[in-house]
Amino acid sequence: MRALVVFLVPVWLLAQPALFAQPAKDTCVECHTAMDGDLQKPALLIKGDVHTASGLSCADCHGGDRLIDDPSVAMSKAKGFIGKPARTAIPQLCAKCHSSPDYMRRYKPQQRVDQFELYKTSIHGKRLAAGDETVATCIDCHSVHDIRAVKDNQSPVYPLRLPDTCGRCHADAAKMAKYKIPTNQLAEYKTSVHWAALSKRSDLSAPNCASCHGNHGAKPPEVESVSAVCGNCHVLFAQMYEKSVHQPIFSAASGGGGCIVCHSNHGIHQPSVAMLAGDKAVCSGCHEVGSAGAKAAGDMAGLLNGLDTALTRSESTLTQADKYGMEVSEAQVKLLDGKEDLVKARLMMHSFRIEDMRKPIDAGMGVAAETLRAGQAALHDKDVRRIGLAVSVFFISITVVAIWLLLRRQESDGSGYIEAQASQMTKE
Amino acid sequence: MLTTTLAWLNDRLGLEGIREVAAHKTVPVHSATRWYYFGGITLFLFGIQVVTGLLLMFYYRPTVAEAFDSVRFIMTRVEFGWLIRSIHSWSANLMIFMAFVHMFSVVFTHAYRSPRELTWGSGIALLGLLLGFGFSGYLLPWNQISYFATKVGADVAGSAPIVGPAIARVLRGGEDVGAATLTRFFALHVMFLPMLTVALIAFHVILVQKNGMSTPPWLSAANVRQMKFFPNFFLREAMVWYIALAVLGALAAIFPWELGEKADPFASAPKGIRPEWYFLAQFYTLKLLPSHVWFMEGELLGILGFGLVAAAWALLPVWGVNKAGEARIRLVSGAGIFLVAYLAVFTYLGYVK
Amino acid sequence: MATKDCDGQCEGCQHTEDRRTVLSWIIGGGIFASMASFLYPVVRFLNPPQITEVAVNEVSGGKTQDLKPNTGKIIKFGNKPALLVRVSDTEWKAFSAVCTHLNCTVQYRDSTSQIWCACHNGTYDLNGRVVSGPPPNPLEEYAVNVRGDDVVISRKA
To answer: Could you tell me which CATH number the domain at C58-154 has?
Structure first.
């Protein structure tokens, strides 16, 4: 009797799937992998999916039962199978889990659960709700079946890849024709400093489309709020601008616009003094030649140019001294302070009051003067060294020539030499 | 006044003997006489190294934290520090170059023959010591180039068969080039090598005085005119040394030795890192060798090759003469030309590639 | 040398006293002058310069009275700026003031007791760690020691 119990207990235990669960059966993937074409593709892609890693599978989205081999049962309505969902139904389908705090808490407690709510406020969401199937849904940006985490650099919404993902539609003239939206944003963005920071310097903090437009609630920022968006990173510039005369003027004229009036929105390039004065100037777009504004712009450009020129001059003098082998590393480091002053001056310019620029300009000019002096002193030292060398070489030459003359005279009569036959000290 | 002092010293030190030798020392006069200067130039430059090196030691600090900054201090803050340091660096290179010229002049005038075999042997050893000075001194400024060049050099040394890894460990003072290496190289450079070198130089120079200046084998010693060393050759040598001094000063003032950037062990090696020119031929040869030759690693074969060539070269007095003791002029001169050509070409290639 | 041979007593001496003397003087003078031009730099070299410190491992942060609690100031540490922060009466902190994003100089913000970079709004806490914004790495921290009423900033071992 005891032997029977001892035998039966392990058998009973083994039968408890919860305790000794074999690897979860997934008939969806099993069958579909053996198919071909469009029916096979998802089963192959799903291996790289972030949901698979959490133990989820096809049935968790499409319904059905992954444990049943018979397809007519596994993919039956009774088992909740919904097949390929309609495009207009996709966001709700994803939201089934992704908007449920209780569900998401099981896998990623910190994950947001408001994406669907945000999406509903977006242009994409509103149009989809109205029946337009061509707008973006979750799977257009995040891909489907091989969905990866945003941090995964192969995800279509990874910061470096996101602009091209948006561009798949927004840079396509055919697709955008019926909405009458321009399609040059991506091309312009790719000429910008932000894209350069992202793509060339791998600075993931640089803004891409979603940084300014939002991702799920994507919509162009209201024109008044643009400078607030820019001001997220460019804090001081935005503060300067907000206090300046331009803020209320732009706000009244075109409903805001802030920074983009001068700096553009997508094709933001490295700003320079050329924006203030000259034939490519932005200021002259409103301020006529000879007006007070034009004069102010010209003066500001003059100050900035003056400091820039002075710093460049110091830098080249120091580089020249460096090339001669003079040690000027300390002055070269000090020059960096001057460059910082130039940056500060450019910042102060955004208050559009020239008095505000004076302090950093003066500080910068001081540094430029100091470093220029250091460079010139180094060049002077180089000359002193060469003069010292010339003096030394002169004395050496005199000595050498004198010795040579002495030798010539001494040996003119053959003295100092022992002729061949008389030599006794040499050995073979 | 001078005579009285000399007489006083002579009574106590027996200087007469030296005077006798000095008065009778002669130098053969022939077409190759100019090559007799090069030993003296090498010695003179070594003297410069000792003096400038000693001066540099007043300010140099041999620790990883301070080495680079102390050299920068010498170059910028110490009066004439730039001069002393640049002369030291330039003279180091010139000295090694002159040592090679001196060695090859001995080869081509066949002065290694009996009774000068030991002079040759000590000379080869001295050349090795000078290269050791170059290698150890190069690291001391602790800049990017010297740090990584030392790493490469120690790795090459470590690939020698059997003893290689042990040698590399002892050189580096550990598994990597670091603070321990700097300390060791400093000890080598300012104490160990100088002591050995001075002793060997004394040996070498005394032998030269004892055996006199060698006459090339195509001349008969008895038939060659001799120049008195004092004052004639000595005055000439004084001119040459003075001119060398002027050249050093000019190099230091017009082409100052660079400081570079402080070594950063975590950065990747600068592109195209290579050792100093006197190791460049061997370095380039190793680069050229295929990774495997027969069953041996190419680099290993290269190092063995260098070792064999060095040993054979040291034994030149053995195979460079025939049974009668006469120089095998064509063989040795041929070998010499080949070696010069190899060194010149491969050093050049090492630079441009 | 030549003078020793002759001593004015030998017969058949050919040399002219004057020319020999002039040449000897020139050689002597040349040697002396050139030696002087070698020795002068050596002597000046051995004379220690005003500032004897070779590398900056330690820098003065001023007096304790100079900085109130919850304020910071920028100090030169070697070639780079450093930020000294007096957190409270007794606690001091110091960091490299070079922002790890694009090398702007950071500043102390007493309103939030955090370190802030004006260029792109990067924020660090009082351990040098990044709180928000683009900086990818924390700020290097330096050691601060108060000796009497002197504040000394040094590199951490």
So the answer is: 2.102.10.10
pLDDT tens string C63-114: 888 999 999 999 888 778 899 999 999 999 999 999 999 888 999 999 999 9
Chain B CB contacts of A417 under 8 Å are 29, 225-228, 232
Pick the CATH number of B27-269 from 1.20.120.1200, 3.40.250.10, 1.20.810.10, 2.60.40.420: 1.20.810.10
Give the integer Cα–Cα distance in Å for C148 and A92: 68
Q: Is the pTM of this model over 0.90?
A: no
Q: C71 forms bridges with which residues in the sheet?
A: C86
CB nearest C54 (choices: B70, B230, B231)? B70
Task: Show me where the domains of chain C are located.
Answer: 16-47, 58-154
Which candidate, A324, C71, A382, places its Cα nearest to that of A390? A382
Residues B264-283, mean pLDDT to the nearest whole number:
86
- Residues paired with residue C124 on neighbouring β-strands, in sequence order: C115, C130
User: Which stretches of chain A score pLDDT less than 70?
Assistant: 5, 9-23, 221-227, 253-257, 421-428
* B24 chain-A contacts, CB cut-off 8 A: 425
Evaluate whether C15 touches A394 at the Cβ level (below 8 Å): no
How many CB atoms sit inside 10 A of residue B187's CB?
Answer: 14
pLDDT confidence of residue B124:
97
Distance from C-alpha of B66 to C-alpha of A187, rounded to nearest angstrom: 52
DSSP C56-108: -SEEEEEEGGGS-TTEEEEEEETTEEEEEEE-SSS-EEEEE-B-TTT-PBPEE
Q: What is the ipTM of this complex?
A: 0.81
pLDDT grade, residue C12 (50/70/90)? very low
- C72/chain A closest Cα distance in angstroms: 19
Crossing angle of helices B37-56 and B81-108, rounded to 10°: 150
